[in-house]
Write a structure and sequence with these properties.
Layout: H1 17-27, H2 36-49, E1 53-57, H3 60-70, E2 78-81, H4 88-95, E3 99-102, H5 114-119, E4 125-129, H6 140-150, E5 153-157, E6 165-166, E7 169-170, E8 177-181, E9 194-198, H7 201-210, E10 215-216, E11 230-231, H8 242-252, H9 255-273, E12 279-280, E13 288-289, E14 295-299, H10 305-314, H11 330-334, H12 343-351, E15 352-355, H13 363-377
Helix pairs in contact: 1-8, 2-8, 3-4, 3-7, 9-13
The chain binds pyridoxal-5'-phosphate.
Pyridoxal-5'-phosphate binds next to helix 3 and helix 4.
């Protein structure tokens, strides 16, 4: 076994000199928030994914909250999502008073299974929140067909999938609204940050007012002076700062390089593990091009995941597990969700292990991860 000299995280930002300069320039400018960098970042991101609009938020969770507001989710409404995601994908429904319905995943892609979505639709279903888990887009054509048939809104959680492709199209125009997160582990970072992209004018207007207290400046009549504004909805202060947006602009210049490196690393892992029966590598659909936010393996059931996890951590390799099924959390349990709800998701979770993947990883580090892991699992030779 070879121990890495320093702890290596499963995911990490890549900040270079031009990012630092971009932030400093904004710090020296008159406006630290509500200035020109927000619109610049929004326009650049919308152009990159090919959407009409983009609305930046202070984080991805706030952005999802905004999307649920724009979709009109309220008490009594049901929204279907996957259990194999970060809790925020489901929590945003609860913020609006709605009910979360979990649909099981596809055992091959670990993404929500459209057939399972359809089984869970009722007269109260209002929206679907598919998640592009690990960066591989969900089966959006099939999900959109189901949504159309039942008149549902689709909010894609693309926290993992900025720059990923589905049937040759970039994530960002495949759903009614799509969220991207800019937390440091995500494809690009603004420290904290998120965005919703959409082609829909009505959603766009609602998102704008929601992130800024529900205030509208447009509706004042001519008898009022220029100071006048109206608060027409109960919004929040969910704005991103210009400092963050400046970092976002600079990071977005490099997104393709980041993706290229992530794809290279994923290929190295896949090549190394494909002949190892104890390691199940992540299946990719041929019409998706993942952004590889996460590299997930599943360990054969004869291998102790806990043992491998602890041994890898002791070698300074920051393995992780994504994700504990959302409804297993005590908060969801006390709402009445029981274990056993989504058996394929639960089975996946029991065997899953996250390997480090991020643009700053060096080939030598990847080799150490590969060699150690193979050596460890082979002590369980099946
Ligand atoms: C990170 C993440 C979020 C939340 O984004 P934040 O910017 O951290 O609030 C939502 N969904 C998924 C799948 C995520 O990975």
């Amino acid at each position: 076994m070879k121990k890495l000299p320093e702890y290596l995280s499963y995911g990490q930002q890549r900040i270079e000199e031009e990012d630092i300069q971009a932030v400093i320039n904004t710090l020296r400018s008159p406006l630290l928030t509500q200035g020109p960098k927000i619109a610049e970042f929004e326009q650049k991101l919308a152009d990159y994914v090919g959407s009409k609009y983009a609305v930046a938020f202070c984080n991805g969770t706030a952005a999802l909250h905004g999307a649920c507001f724009a979709a009109g989710i309220s008490e009594g409404d049901e929204v279907i999502t996957t259990p194999i995601t970060f809790a925020a994908s489901a929590n945003c429904v609860l913020y609006m008073g709605g009910t979360v319905v979990f649909a099981d995943i596809d055992a091959n892609t670990y993404n929500i299974n459209p057939l399972e979505i359809e089984k869970r639709i009722t007269s109260r279903t209002k929206a679907i929140i598919p998640v592009d888990f690990t960066g591989q887009p969900a089966d959006m054509d099939t999900i959109n067909k189901v949504a159309k048939r039942h008149n549902l809104i689709v909010i894609e959680d693309g926290a993992h999938s900025l720059g990923a492709e589905y049937k040759g199209r970039k994530v960002g125009t495949l759903a009614d609204m799509t969220m991207f997160s800019f937390h440091p582990v995500k494809p690009i970072t603004t420290a904290e940050g998120g965005i919703i992209v959409t082609n829909n004018d009505d959603f766009y207007q609602k998102l704008l007012t929601f992130r800024s207290h529900g205030i509208e400046k447009t509706s004042y009549s001519s008898e009022q002076g220029d100071w006048y504004y109206e608060m027409t909805n109960l919004g929040f202060n969910y704005r991103m700062t210009d400092i963050q947006a400046a970092l976002g602009v600079s990071q977005l210049n490099k997104v393709e390089h980041f993706l290229e490196r992530r794809r290279e690393i994923a290929k190295m892992y896949c090549e190394a593990f494909k002949e190892i029966p104890e390691i199940i590598i992540p299946n990719q659909l041929k019409d998706t091009n993942s952004g590889w936010h996460l590299y997930m393996i599943q360990l054969d059931k004869k291998v102790s995941r806990k043992d491998i996890f602890e041994k890898m951590r002791s070698l300074n390799i920051g393995v992780h597990v994504h994700y504990i099924p959302v409804y297993w959390h005590p908060y969801y349990h006390q709402l009445g969700y029981e274990k056993g709800l989504c058996p394929i998701a639960e089975n996946y979770y029991e065997k899953a292990l996250t390997l480090p993947i991020h643009p700053g990883l060096k080939d030598e580090e990847i080799q150490v991860i590969i060699t150690n892991l193979i050596e460890l699992v082979e002590t369980y030779k099946i």
